[in-house]
Amino acid sequence: MERLQKFLSECGVASRRKSEELIVxxxxxxxxxxxxxxxxxxxxxxxxxxxxxxxxxxxxxxxxLYKPRGIISSVKDEKGRKTVVDLVDVDxxxxxxxxxxxxxxxxxxxTNDGELSNLLTHxxxxxxxxxxxxxxxxxxKNDAILLSKGILLDGKKTKPGLFKLKKYDKKTDSSYxxxxxxxxxxxxxxxxxxxxxxxxxxxxxxxxxxLNLNGLKSGQYRKLSLKEVKQLYSLKQxxxx
Length: 241
Fold this sequence. Notes:
This protein is an alpha+beta fold. The protein has 3 domains: 2-55, Roll (Structural Genomics Hypothetical 15.5 Kd Protein In mrcA-pckA Intergenic Region, Chain A), CATH 3.10.290.10; 62-124 and 216-235, 2-Layer Sandwich (Alpha-Beta Plaits); 129-208, Alpha-Beta Plaits, CATH 3.30.70.1560. It has helices at residues 4-10, 16-24, 114-121, 141-149, 188-194, 226-240; strands at residues 2-3, 28-30, 33-34, 41-42, 48-50, 53-55, 62-67, 95-97, 105-111, 129-136, 152-153, 156-157, 162-169, 174-181, 200-208, 211-212, 221-223. The chain is elongated.
């Protein structure tokens, strides 16, 4: 037996948090009865329906996508725009792990493994994400030190990371900055630069944990190996240490 929201997450319906919203909003039935209470437990023998459709667990699948600009990091979009799920041609109900902004490119994971998704997106997960940001103007060393130590955003200090100037283009008056952070707040990288007066012109996520974009072009994806999946799960043990 397992909690209904975890079961839905494991079935690839949505993340555990989104699954809880579906339950509270009366979108889920168990054996023909609408369930609105969190904490209800189900087994594989129970008939679970979401929006009138029966859901069941699929084989776990894991993909790394090179997200292009102008793509939504969601399963569906109310405005009818393309989503990251539209770019991965699989039958399973996969969903993105975390988010990348509409105009941000780079590495994003998609899976139907709710347990792994929950692990990687938990506030205490400390999974490193590496970006290259193109910002307007010359990125000063003192600002790099300040951002690396952590600054206040919305009243909460960001965790220590790395902000390092890679190169400065005099012709366009723009800096290319390597960024490594272990948090996943919405618009965090852009907001951190903005707090010091830098406009982010482009942002690309080069690496998620140990996964990089080698061999992939924009819009392409690949399946993760069993070894890579095990490595992602092992991050849980490292973060506990």
